[in-house]
Design brief:
Elements (H helix, E strand, L loop, with lengths): L18 H8 L6 H6 L6 H4 L3 E2 L15 H18 L6 E2 L6 E2 L22 H23 L4 H12 L2 H4 L4 H6 L2 H12 L5 H17 L3 H21 L3 H18 L1 H14 L17 H5 L14 H9 L6 H13 L3 H18 L3 H7 L10 H4 L1 H18 L8 H17 L11 H31 L2 H21 L10 E2 L1 H10 L4 E4 L7 H5 L6 E2 L5 H11 L11 E2 L8 H10 L1 H5 L3 E6 L8 E4 L6 E6 L4 E7 L2 H5 L3 E9 L8 E8 L7 E6 L7 E11 L6 E9 L5 E7 L7 E3 L9 E3 L1 E4 L6 E6 L4 E5 L6 E3 L3 E7 L2 E6 L3 E5 L7 E5 L2 E3 L2 E3 L3 E6 L2 E9 L4 H26 L1
Parallel strand pairs: 5-8
Antiparallel strand pairs: 1-4, 2-3, 6-7, 8-22, 9-20, 10-17, 11-16, 11-18, 12-15, 12-17, 12-20, 13-14, 13-16, 17-19, 21-22, 23-26, 24-25, 25-31, 26-30, 27-28, 27-31, 29-30
Length: 890
Amino acid sequence: MTGTSPLAPPDWLDRHPLVPPLILALAPLLGLLPAWLFGVSLNPIWTSSGAATGVLPGLIHGQSFGDPNIGWTTQALGHLAAQDWLHLRLPWWNPDNGIGLPLAGEIQPAAFFLPFVLLLALPTGVVWLQTLMQAMLGLATYALFRRLSLGRLAALAGALLFAFNSVFAYPPHIGELCAMPFLPITLHGIEDARDPAHPHRAVILVALGIAFSIFAGFPEAAYLNGLFALAWAAFRLVRAPHRAAFALRVAAGGLCGLAIAAPQLVAFADALLASGQLGGHNFGQQSIPARGIAGLLVPYVFGPLNDWIGSDPLFGLADATGRSIGLLPILAALSGLIAARDRGLALFLGVWTLGCLARLFGIHPIIAASNLIPGLGKVYFWRYATPIWLLPIATLAACGIDAARSAPLPRALPLLAALVLLLAAGVLAAPSLLPWRLAAAAAIIQHAWYRAALAAAAASLLLAALALYALRGEARRLAFVALLATNAIALFLVPRLGNHRAGTLDTAALAYLRTHLTPARAYTLSPILANYSAYFGYPDINYEYFPADLSFARYIHDHLAPEFGGRLPPALFQPLFAPLTPTYARDEFLRREPAYAALAIRYLIAPPSFIPASTVAFPPISANALGIPLAPGHAMTFRGTASAALARLPAFTRIGILHGTYGNAANGTGTITICPGAPGAACASGHAPMQGSPDNGPFTVKLDHPVHLRQGEAYTITFAHRGGTSPDAVWAYITHNPAAVAITGPDGKPVPLHTPRLVFSAPRSPYLVRAWSDHLLSIWRLTNAAPFYTTDPACSLSSPGTDHVIATCAAPARLTRRELYAAGWRATDNAAPIPLTRTGEVFQSVPLHQGINRLRFTFAPRYSRLAWVAASLGLLALLVAAARGLGRTR
């Protein structure tokens, strides 16, 4: 057993061995206190779904989660996977995003993370999953430290320190949290592999640790956990008395773990092949600026997490260094580095931690050397590697506390080092020395956090010094452990106070969509965000996926939105996010509406103010406006050239000019005439009464015939005020753009450095009919939507569902199913297999025979049968190992 010392006195918790596990199991409930006491919510649905109203800010700036993928993938897609299991379906396929996409293959929904993924079927399942993982992490870490022969108090302190770490306080992804408990489980198995008394338990623990790290749904976390476990195993191998047996046990556990995880690995590989993204992303050179060391040492010294209160660099530092240590854990770890009984392990952990931090902060030789490790150059190291350097620090801290059972904790050198680090952090994060400027309001907030963070860190060091110097014996150790645990829990709770307070979901609109979209799809311009249609139970072509399907991404680029895509499929197809700006997404939909309808899109979801007509308006409204009076009997002239955006607009039939009516006093008739500059092009004009036109809004007329302008084509617009007794006014904005529309005033003189705001509108779509509207959104029915299933006139269809239909045919025919074609799709007719092929670019087709065809469609990734065989063999091997282990103990 590692680090045993017969001279160490018994631990007072030895008389109460169940107390530490009980504390570790219940302590994560403290994370729910802000929700219970102050009404803030840990549920990402309020900020990530777009389907809620009445959401209120939290008690402080910042919140405990920032990446919307916690909502988009873990909550939305994980909920779908849980529902599949509860309905006894394998979660291979997601029919509710895109035109169907792999579900388990996306990997982040953790579709095979059983039984834990079933929690995501609950409305607050994400919260309970996080709480459960935190409890498991504490218990698994405690068991590891006990396996290292640390006393119960030291093991409890180290486990609390690791369980209430900054990753759980501010998770970059729930998948990373789900993988974390299985890192100490894997290391526990490696330690068992050194012990001839526990060879079978070693295989079981290593296998479960590796398999569930993969099932957790985050490849980067599983890879980094495996890397640290491999380094730990290599270190132990050098010192193992029976190296061959040790290596065999670890390897057997690793192979069993990979075999058990084979269904998930095969699904991911199949989706990756369909994405064309085998190269993945490359983040090998990315690091945190050296100034970020301050945030690592003193949590929140740069301000609240995930809050755009200041400049982008400040947000980047605060966000990046949300993964922090704090000075008290460093103090304890330094004591462990000096006093740990297992000097070899302490040295290994110290060197590993320094290497991780050197890579984290961009030490180029370390980055270059570590990038030689296969795959490491593709990992977002600074964001996802935190557990593999926090666990060594927690281990060293526990070793130091344990060593104090038989000798006083080292005090002077660790305290001096912590004080120096505190001063360095104060200088690095000093607002007056930051290389960027903040607005006054942001500066006040950042200064307050800076002072509070430094004061809290200084106070914790002062209390630690008092405990170490004023107390003696076991009282000193108990006081230091209490301070360490209290500090970790307090820092963990801070960002949770910034979570939003719950609002109200638009359940009526969501129910309408669920009722009317079977089988058919929606397309959302706004406000509901990517993947949440899967959570709410209706299909929508928007998605946030990695890996994303290449064939559908190309279809989007070719037929729906030319700005979308490129060599590799973007992970996000969602208006509001580049390149699909709201205006671009709206205009492309209206321009290409038949192509959207061909995807069986029956409904468009849009803001309440949506008008089904393409519009181009410029320049943006600003405060720098000049009102130019336009009296009855006078006219103004505007001259410009068509921009690329205006040229993309289909032939427009309405023109608006931003005007003011002097409090609705203007009367008479306004006439707008536009004359294109192309030879032979006819002018178009329209008129409307001034009275009733919105004050400080666009005065709009319908032209007597449509007009289309080519890019660069000159045009002239005349705005005339006829009849009436009260003047109108045209708002003109200051501009220094030589290409801006020029103004000639009513007196015939130019108005320099000013331009009008013009609005060009195409005709309304004839295919859109408003079906629903409320304060949050509007729903528009596409009258020309293609059916989900189509076939020849010789057939009639009945009982259609997304995965089944009955076709009654008078003659042989073919059926088209508007679902994404993938190699794993299979079809049966009256329970007999029939060929399923691709039709067009992305859809499926099957043959129909004369008579009744009862069709059913199922999906499973390629080689999934072999994966189940491998998983069965892996589980069988673990059962054999467990049986042999039980027989050995008897």
